[in-house]
Amino acid sequence: xxxxxxxxxxxxxxxxxxxxxxxxxxxxxxxxxxxxxxxxxxxxxxxxxxxxxxxxxxxxxxxxxxxxxxxxxxxxxxxxxxxxxxxxxxxxxxxxx
Length: 97
Prior knowledge:
The protein is of the alpha+beta class. It is 27% helix and 19% strand. It has one domain. The protein has helices spanning 31-41, 74-88; strands at residues 23-29, 53-56, 60-66. The radius of gyration is 13 Å and the shape is globular.
C-alpha cells in the first residue's frame, strides 16, 4: 500500500457539483480497504494513497470513500466524496476542466 501524507484533494469544477441522477451506492471502508479496492479492483495506479474511487455506467455509480477516523476528518471525507461524486456526474478521470 502506498504510504505518506494525505495529498490535497482536487476540487471538482462547479459544473459537476450536483447530486447524481442515477442509482448511487456509497461504500465506506478503512483506508486499507479503500486502497485495496481502488488499486486492486478498480485498477488505479498512483504514487499516492487511493483515498477514494468511483465506477460509473449509464445508470449507476458506485463510490468508495474512507470512514472518518485517524487522518480522515469529516472535512477530508466530504472533500473526497464531492470529488468522487463529480466523477459520477461526468468529470473525467484525468481531471480536465
